[in-house]
Amino acid sequence: MSLTALNRRAGASRPRPTPSQRRANRDGWSMVLPIVVIVTAIIIVPIIWTFILSFQEARYSDVARNGLFNPLTLSNYTDVLTSHGFWESLWVTIIYTAGTTIGSIAVGFLAALALRNAFRGRGAVRAVFLLPYVAPVVAGAYVWKVMLNPQFGIINEWGTSYLGWDQPIDFLGRAPFAMITIIVFEVWRYFPFAFLFFGAALTGLPRDIEEAALVDGATPWQKFRHVILPQVMPVIALLTLLRLVMTFNKFDDIFLLTGGAADTEVAAVRVYDQLVGSSDIGAASANAVILAVILAIGLTVYMRFTRRAED
Amino acid sequence: MDVIRFQNITFGTLKWVLIVGLLLASLFPFYYMVVMSFVPVQDLLRNPSLLVPELQQLTLDTYRQVVASEEDGGFGFARFMRNSAIVATGATLLTMLLSVPAAWAMTRLKFAGGRQVSAMFLAVYMFPAIIIAVPVFVGFQVLGLGSTLIGLVIAYIALIVPVTVHMLRSYMISIPESIDEAAMIDGATRWQIMRKITVPLALPTIMSTALYAFMIAWNEFLFALLFLSAKPELWTVSLGLTRLADGQEVSRTILMAGSVLLTLPIVIMYAFAERWLTEGLTAGAEKG
């Protein structure tokens, strides 16, 4: 038996906690207990509950009457997995997630590079860049809706007067345009997020390596490609992970802009429609669980992949 | 050498093109929003690409109509603003009150189960709202908290607490524990150490965390939609605006004035506390 195993076994028969340890336990728990209770009640229990509900043919009245104890069934899963709409929404979600993740990280990175060297007014420019991110999503979505409106929106006004469009484009109501528009909107809203990360990372880079590269005759592009880019790779990996998780379940932006019309029904909007529209709690839960599983699998693959790349 | 000069000029030019382009993209929607909220809708019908209105064109009528209560023929935004203010302020204060001691205990005390609590917060940190929306919605309806501002505040606390605890903790770890130990020897209790030593030292971080929490709560939409849809008198600004837009034909000047009212508190806050908020955003940026 190894020494650590022995130690662990010895630790199993715990000595009685000392009075100071008991006081630490008491103080510690009195400080964390309220938020532990709230987070358990609002997040942990609902996660478990979603899982249970996904195995029940439940409507509001059943849940109100029987709580968690409705008969169990697999039919929600078979219904979801065999429905055409589910696979379509999954595909839409993947395109949307990939498009916005890549787009927002690329634009945020370029923005951070552009602001890397100090110039007069840089602080103000940085503050303005963050506006789309701090502004409420509802306000942002409505300005875009008004700007893109086919009848009176300024974008179509410009397009038909100056760009020679034959007719106004229904940016949020026609199939290929709607998806492109919500991706562009999302890039607009979240490039500041990547910009903040890259800004912090670029400030932290040691300048002497770059200066050495320049002395050695590297072109600016080579300097970027071989000196800067390798050093910010970890930031790109982290941002990709965060953006993937957050975009995959995104609800507000699409719900507000298109409501899921014109081939933009992403998974989260579908869950909402099942929950509120047809009040099919079981299907909504099964859908949410499947999404969580797909996300978990995707993340595991991604982490494996990046870890191997790091080695 | 030529390559280097060529690239320097190209990238130097592209950089300014990008900066100007992003400035326009970031600012123009908000400018447009403000302009539309101040001009009469008839002027827009006559000239759809109106961007720089004459001074005498400007009017406050749209705002008067938006803010006025329904009985006075308005849209009730004064009430929406009040509801949002109550919910966001309440959620922020309670969140901070609860998460400061919790973050302190997690960084300072070795108590049984403390590690598990930290792990739990990290795990829920990334949980998307839509997955918990179903049971929270159903459960709150059953408990009778479904259509109340208190229910919304409780839900917001749960949404915000993992973020604030994370932000506070990463700062408190950097405060040397030797200060605490000195106070401990002088006979201070743990609560006193936290209140008299850690909180004053961490005040800037606490402020930026609070601002960030307020921003999340003020901007939140999904839970407000789930909880309060049936109760117009409790709508927050975000919810009120969307219900307004979905309902009868509402002119875009009204919509834009509502959007301005929704955005204004956040922008004012941001203008006064940009540095704090940027710090908070960077630290808490992982959520959002």
Features:
heterodimer; A: MetI-like fold; disordered N terminus; B: about 290 residues; mainly alpha; MetI-like fold
Instruction: Provide the gyration radius of chain B in Å.
Output: 24 Å
What is the third-level CATH name, the topology of the largest domain in chain B? MetI-like fold
Share of helical residues of chain B:
over 70%
Taken in chain order, the helices and strands of chain B follow as HHHHHHHHHHHHHH
Total count of domains of chain B: 2
Task: Report the span from N to C terminus of chain B.
Answer: 45 Å
- Would you tell me the overall average pLDDT of chain A? 84
Helix fraction of chain A, binned, reads over 70%
Strand content of chain B: under 5%
Q: Order of helices and strands of chain A, N to C? A: HHHHHHHHHHHHHHH
> Structural class of chain B, please?
mainly alpha
CATH architecture call of the largest domain in chain B = Orthogonal Bundle
CATH topology of chain A: MetI-like fold
Provide structural commentary.
Chain A has helices at 3-12, 19-53, 60-66, 75-82, 84-114, 122-129, 131-134, 137-148, 154-162, 175-204, 207-215, 220-248, 252-257, 267-277, 281-310. Chain A is mainly alpha-helical. Chain A has a single domain (85-310), classed as MetI-like (MetI-like fold, Orthogonal Bundle), CATH 1.10.3720. The model of chain A is unreliable at 1-12 (pLDDT under 50). Chain B is an all-alpha fold. Chain B has two domains: 2-59; 77-284, Orthogonal Bundle (MetI-like fold). Helix content of chain B is 76%, strand content 0%. Chain B is built from 14 helices and no strands. Chain B has helices at residues 2-38, 41-46, 61-67, 77-108, 114-124, 129-143, 149-172, 177-185, 190-201, 203-219, 222-228, 237-246, 252-272, 274-284. The mean pLDDT of chain B is 84.
